[in-house]
Amino acid sequence: MAGIVTELWSRGQVWLRAHPLVSDALLAAVLLAVQQSLWLVAPAPGDLWQPSWLASTGWAVGEMLAVVLRRRWPLVAVAIASLSALGTVFLAPAVQSGGVALIVVGYTLGAYLPLRRALVATVALWAPMLLAGSIWPSGLLVVPVWYFLALNLMTALVVFFVGRTVHNRRAYTAALEERARAAEANQRALAEQAVADERRRIARELHDVVAHHVSVMGVLATGARRVLTRDPAAADEALTTIEETGRTALREMRRLLTVLRTEAEPAAELAPQPGLGGIEALVEQIREAGLPVTLRINGAETPLDPGVALTVYRIVQEALTNTLKHAGQATALVRLDLDRSCLQLEVSDTGRGPRPDGGRIGHGLLGMRERVALYGGTLRTGPRPGGGFRVSARIPLEQFDGKGADT
Fold it and tell me: In angstroms, rounded to a whole number, what is the distance separating the alpha carbons of residues 164 and 22?
């Protein structure tokens, strides 16, 4: 039960901070109730007690309007509080409210306004009272003039300095919080930079280890091939060493990828990466999505490096996706020409082509270019002479037999 009450209280505080006009109205209602309750306990002197209480209530309601408006419109609150106080002093001295609005508004000016504006507004709030009290006939005041002036002046100074103390405290706290946030962000950036530097250092070391193992494997494979017919035992020993070295290199490669992978990257999928065999399924999916696509593969079947095959698949996927999104009513053609030295890929469509602002050129095409450049190829993208858009890639092929590169 206590937890529920605490939670409701916390939510109420947050809501009131977000709605200052409502919170100030509640404060004005509480002050009005307390003030008029005290009036009932100690009524004003004179024969007309009840009318004086009613008159006091009326004046107090007008006075509390300044409390309601003090943070939203402080200058309006200054005018209302000052005029209300003057009215109760000189128009109806028997129903003086005690200047509650003057005190609350004076505190608000010191606590919420910049120093110069706060000083000017405070003078505008209290000066009419002090000036009128010094020139008005003393017979209309219930206290001596000097006491009236000293009391109001002291009250104005105390209230203003209390407000400024609160203002400075809030500014100091806000500065500390901002400094703490900046220090935390700086510390986090330094930690991330240290982690990144350490990862790069480890990656360089592991790269050297992997490169050494691969070089050893290449040398041993060459030696094994040369002695295979003359000394099968030596060739078998070399192949065993190649096997062990390959496993070691694979373990180091996995460690290298673990070091390079950041926490923000998604986990790798367990399914095998697509290659040339997945292009037909991809084309069929695009057809089902509403784009007529023709697939043509020319040339003898040539074993491809898995990385090259994945690059071809991703280029086709990105190009057809762009065509589906931007080409409108169109058809598409995917043509793949293979031989033992080169791979030629072209994806073209008959759509409306790129927009004048270059909207078709995005991160996808940049990714294609990076993939093709990784294998020493070239990528060309642009509008077709007869209309539409074309993506053309040329990738040179090294001798690849499906088991390893021929060194």
Answer: 24
Residue 347: strand pairing partners: 334, 391
Question: What whole-number distance in Å separates Cα of residue 110 and Cα of residue 160?
Answer: 5
Q: How far is CA 312 from the centre of its chain?
A: 36
CB 60 within 8 A of CB 32: yes
What mean pLDDT do residues 252-266 have?
Answer: 61
- DSSP at 142: S
Grouping H, G, I as helix, E, B as strand and the rest as coil, residue 331 is coil
389: enclosing H helix or E strand: strand 389-396
SS percent in the chain: helix, strand, coil, step 5: 70, 10, 25
Confidence check: pLDDT of 92 > 60: no
| 8 A C-beta contact, residue 322 and residue 364 | yes
Least confident of 35-49, 52-66, 112-126, 196-210: 35-49
- Provide the whole-model pTM: 0.45
Residues 193-247: tens digit of each pLDDT: 877 776 677 667 666 667 777 777 777 788 888 888 888 888 888 888 888 878 7
Residues across the chain: 407
- Please choose, from the candidates 235, 113, 252, 254, the residue with its C-alpha nearest in 3D space to the C-alpha of residue 171: 113
Bridge partners of 392, per DSSP, are 346, 380
pLDDT, residue 407, reads: 34
Please calculate the CA angle 140-143-145 and round it to the nearest 5 degrees: 80
Q: Which domains does the chain have, with CATH numbers?
A: 2-142 (no CATH), 186-260 (1.20.5), 276-396 (3.30.565.10)
Distance CA 106, CA 254 (A): 70
Q: At residue 126, does pLDDT exceed 60?
A: yes
The structure tokens listed for 405 are: 């590169």
**Separation CA 304–CA 277 (nearest Å):** 11
Question: What is the distance between the alpha carbons of residues 118 and 171, in angstroms, rounded to a whole number?
Answer: 15
220: how many CB neighbours lie within 10 A of its CB?
Answer: 19
Strand spans (E) along 271-350: 293-298, 332-338, 342-349
Residue 46: name the closest of 92, 99, 88, 100 by CA: 92
